[in-house]
Give the backbone structure.
Amino acid sequence: MMNKKIIFTILFAMLLAPMCMEAKKKVKKEDVPQLLNYPSAELGEFRLHGGEVVIKGRLVAQDQQMIEQMNAHFNVIMRDYIVKKEKTTTIEFKSDGTFSLNVRVPYPMFVLVHPLTMVYACPGDTIDLTIDTTKPTREEGFVVSGTGVSGEVSKLAETMIKKYCKFPMRDNIHEQGPDSLMKWKDVQVARLDDVVRQMNAGLPELEGCSSLASDILRTFILKQHLEHICRYYILTDLDNTDKDAYWQQYFSFLAPREKYLLDNPLLMISADEFFFNYVEVSVMRPLYTTASKGLILPLDYNSGTAEMLANEKHISIHEAKKSAVDELHDKLHLSPTNFSTQVSVLRELFIMLKWLKDNYDTASEDVASTMPFINHPALIRQAVLTYREYVKENELKVVEDKPLTKGDSIFQRIIEPYKGNVLYIDFWQMSCHPCRAGMLRMRDEVEANKDKPVKYLYITDDTPEDCRSFLEPNNIQGEHIHITRSEWGYLQEKFQFSAIPFVLLFDKQGKRREDVTVEELLNE
């Protein structure tokens, strides 16, 4: 006969079993959908190389005068987000309104045809734009077409954003505090997962698309969602929180989705400058501060530096980067070699190179400290090419005589009356709040230097009538120069800028100077 104690134990275990099963249900892992049939195309290394793309089209206007007025108002802006460089090329319309230009891109990417739209530029393709100002609406008057992947992606990108990236235009969630933001983030991640499920079911807009175009557009949609989540994290005031713990909790959703959100080489040809700016500052927070934590070692042995390292008063820049990568792995459980981490490490390097100028010893040490973290062939190639370009630019001692461009002629005409002075030149527009704020901050300096050999030139393509309501009540002194939209476009191309305010400094000899102040130039 079975012992009463044994029978009681069996009965108790049977009663406990359903409770244990229920507990297991409650701790069931998060259901994270993974992208199926992705990537659907073979992303060969050659597809990540650069080359030329043709951007052509026609402006249909009511009369010839309008075509002339619109000339040079259009620009193609190419932003190489890996090396943090921007190139602006002016579109010039012929007398019949047609235009054509070859734009070189370092790899397939989205470029901005300002002020119209973003188009996709894949080497070897042609993008065709029709701008018909006689049509009543933009939808009717602006048509994008083209060949190859460029044509496919350019035609669909705007449609895909409107349908799958419907973010509120004026969401003020960042003003409601960290707790509200965390709940908001969970909702956004759920929306992201829903989009992934839709992709797995098949997006009807992608039917008939080539595999590569489909992959680029899907990656583009995914990056928009992550960018949106990162943006509001950056905007939120976290001063009264445990920032490290909050960062870790906020981005805990990334590890299960890392393969398509971060460790994804398709981001190289589908993401853009804005995406990596946001990811770098938020997700890659430990990496973002490495420049201030690490010591760049001298090229040759230095006993003082060796003693500091031996006493653990400092760590090398390589150790600082390794510590940051380890922190991403330990706290967010991200792969140390994921593609986005590699891009972020490179971006920090190229910022440093720009700042170092011709300090080759320090630059070579920073390059040597960075390259062990890079293993993707396309990123290694970009690093080598950019370092080569950096050395060439800084070692060039003789400036070749080049024919004057339209931008050169316009600029020479503007500064001719002020030769022999230090020139502070500010490109601005009435619609730009930071521009106006900067001019207000400069008022005291302009007044203090009014009898010195320095001229403050404020250049805008707004009319005097448009600017008067701001300039006169606020007593904005200086030389106010109003140019046409066409001239503005040529100066954008000459100085390679798209964002404003854009400020230039020239010394008394007419040489452009950087990293100096007006006061320093006056004292020379």
Remarks:
- Residues 22-28 have pLDDT under 50 and may be disordered.
- The chain has 23 helices and 15 strands.
- The radius of gyration is 28 Å.
- The first strand starts at residue 51 and ends at 60.
